[in-house]
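Example noted here:
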Amino acid sequence: MSPLRRFGGESAQARVRRDALLEGVWRAAPSLVATGVWGIVTGVAMVNSGLTPLQAAGMSLLVFAGSAQLAALPLMAAQAPIWVVLLTALVINLRFVIFSAALYPHLKHLPLLRRALLGYVTADFSFAVGMARWNNVPAEQHGAPEHIAFLIGAAASTWIVWQTTSLAGVALGAQIPTAWALDFVTVVSLIALTLPMISGRPALIGVVTSGVVAVLAAPLPLRLGLVVAVIAGMAAAMAADIALEKS
């Protein structure tokens, strides 16, 4: 007989993992409304940019990066050079390199395939709540199964909501009038997702720097001002973090 204590046929360890997974879903819940709105807007934008419903659905499932998608779609519609499209998407998604570096110490014991799947479904908010949980427990517990289950709960719920609403936006497509000002809705949903993740002076400095540079560099062609703003914000945040560590 297993040494683990049983609860109605369920092991104590399994119950802990299940509770942690549900807690992850609960912690991600406040962001899911904004994620859903953003998903619908992105789905509509993909179809209105000239993609077929099948292409749009494939982009949603394969890319799973709303900010990069919304930045790349107008460039694709304007037939911008492919290097500009790829560079824009790459720069916007550079933050995932930072996410990977932060998560690696906690997930390095997992098989490569499982790490890859977790990397695919982990988005900004799920990363933030996952790291917040790990920061509140001793370092030796960071790779514990219940903490990984928590991350899966937060990430998987975000992925499900995003894909469902994005595909709904693809199905609606051109039926949504342009007078509905979806660009404004996108900005509001992004603000709702971003504000809870601004923690600490380096992050705040990076956000302010990106915002200022984005406004100043807006006249640049092919939306290259966005690329410049992202790079400037990351550089400012890293410089501020280094300066604070030395002080």
